[in-house]
Task: inverse folding
DNA sequence: ATGTGC
């Protein structure tokens, strides 16, 4: 267990666990927090997991955790670890079971007052059009061989099928398509699980939300993104469903063997990995990218059905309900990126698990329209609480390999939450606050109770204060759709 | 997170 005495405070919102803490650490471990969040962080195994990642072969500079850190499989959720190619390792546990879990934000030109009278119907129609729940299949029938196209081309596949516009792709991380994806590295079992699930939401913390922009923190940047106070927007939070889950399972199993083959010593079995430049490592990367493309396509099809739902409910009732895309980000992904470490330009495998890329102004990979303001960062809060739109900063490039937080972060396990919260009562409470709720499972709802999460406003305050993202606008929910 | 775990 890592306790308060093992920590060194090295900045207003920054702590370090030095390599003297444990003899197998190759680099220090750093994490961002304030005093209040610190209490929760030292209460579970997440810092010990972070220290474990500091022992990985090829890890550079320091491993990092964001203020929304909590316990995960092997790596903590909210963790960032960068390893140098080709001998530095890639680990499926550093990405997570939900490969390219991420968030998409669509914005309408409408004020909340115009939508309010139709909100109940909108929630019902969204729930009907966007299938959710564990194991749930979806509306898209793929032709033979078409699943390969989804995995190779991601949101580009969706464009060809009429589910996307060029503008959507332009405002998606990586253009919605990772070029290195190789569908041949994805097992038959993973394909079987994913075949019928394109355009579905899933369960757990995944959701579709209709929100209103309730606070604008930076007027200029908000305007540049197309956001204004009182505006109705829609958020999608979901990933690669059963396909990504199976890809992770397959490679975790396979990598049990590669750990021995390459003579790797690990403090936790859950950190199984392979050198990123080895055949096994490259195969996982290609399969992970295929699953990531599937997730981009999934969110794109959901966006299409959200647009259709707005059309169905609002056409003829309001003047313009077109939903344009602000951005789509991944928060479970390993990326091959170039970063400067101690004055040297290195090619790194950056694992972001429950962490968001937050590239600052000037980055060539950003859409032209956003290049001078930095990458939009979408931070969903817990159910019934606010969410945030941030932008990446030069500070993130300097401090965190261009990364920041991804959400509120759990304080209670799912099991704990289910025991202490009643789903029906929670729904009642949300509805009393004027939030429309459509949920397939009441126990699923209980697992996502706001009380089971940290305060997202505080998490965002820390990353803003630390300079690894900048606050632009806050969103508050009008309607929530869940599995 | 997940065709949910002992």
Result:
């Amino acid at each position: 267990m890592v306790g308060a005495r093992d920590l060194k405070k090295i900045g207003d919102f920054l702590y370090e666990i030095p390599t003297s803490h444990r003899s197998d650490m190759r680099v220090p471990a750093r994490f961002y927090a304030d005093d209040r969040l610190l209490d929760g962080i030292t209460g579970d195994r997440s810092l010990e997991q972070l220290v474990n990642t500091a022992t990985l072969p090829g890890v550079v500079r320091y491993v990092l955790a964001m203020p929304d850190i909590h316990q995960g499989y092997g790596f903590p959720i909210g963790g960032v670890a960068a390893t140098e190619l080709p001998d530095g390792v890639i680990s499926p546990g550093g990405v997570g079971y939900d490969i390219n879990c991420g968030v998409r934000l669509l914005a309408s030109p409408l004020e909340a007052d115009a939508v309010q009278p139709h909100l109940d119907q909108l929630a019902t129609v969204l729930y009907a059009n966007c299938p959710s729940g564990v194991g749930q299949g979806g509306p898209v029938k793929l032709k033979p061989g078409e699943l390969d196209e989804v995995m190779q081309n991601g949101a580009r596949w969706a464009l060809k099928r009429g589910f996307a516009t060029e503008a959507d792709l332009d405002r998606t991380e990586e253009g919605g398509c990772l070029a290195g994806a190789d569908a041949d590295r994805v097992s038959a079992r993973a394909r079987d699980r994913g075949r019928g699930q394109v355009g579905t939401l899933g369960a757990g913390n995944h959701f579709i939300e209709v929100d209103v922009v309730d606070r604008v923190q930076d007027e200029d940047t908000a305007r540049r993104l197309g956001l204004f106070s009182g505006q109705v927007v829609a958020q999608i939070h979901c990933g690669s469903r059963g396909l990504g889950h199976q890809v992770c399972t397959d490679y975790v199993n396979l990598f049990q063997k590669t750990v021995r083959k390459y003579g790797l010593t690990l403090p936790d079995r859950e950190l199984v990995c392979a050198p990123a430049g080895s055949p096994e490592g490259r195969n996982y990367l290609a399969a992970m990218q295929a699953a990531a493309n599937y997730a981009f396509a999934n969110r794109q099809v959901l966006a299409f059905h959200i647009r259709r739902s707005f059309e169905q409910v609002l056409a003829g009732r309001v003047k313009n309900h077109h939903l344009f895309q602000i951005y789509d980000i991944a928060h479970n992904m390993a990326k091959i990126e170039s970063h400067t470490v101690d004055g040297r330009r290195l090619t790194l495998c950056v694992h972001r698990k429950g962490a968001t890329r937050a590239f600052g102004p000037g980055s060539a990979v950003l859409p032209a329209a956003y290049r001078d303001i930095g990458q939009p960062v979408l931070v969903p809060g817990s159910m019934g609480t606010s969410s945030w739109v941030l932008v990446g900063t030069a500070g993130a490039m300097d401090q965190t390999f261009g990364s920041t937080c991804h959400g509120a972060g759990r304080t209670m396990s799912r099991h704990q939450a289910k025991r202490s919260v009643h789903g029906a009562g929670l729904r009642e409470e949300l509805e009393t606050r004027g939030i429309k709720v459509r949920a397939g499972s009441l126990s699923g709802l209980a697992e996502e109770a706001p009380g089971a999460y940290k305060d997202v406003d505080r998490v965002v305050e820390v990353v803003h204060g630390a300079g690894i993202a900048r606050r632009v606008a806050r969103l508050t929910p009008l309607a929530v759709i869940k599995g």
In short: The domain at 4-411+453-482 of chain A is CATH 3.90.1860.10 (tRNA-splicing ligase RtcB). Chain A has a mean pLDDT of 97.
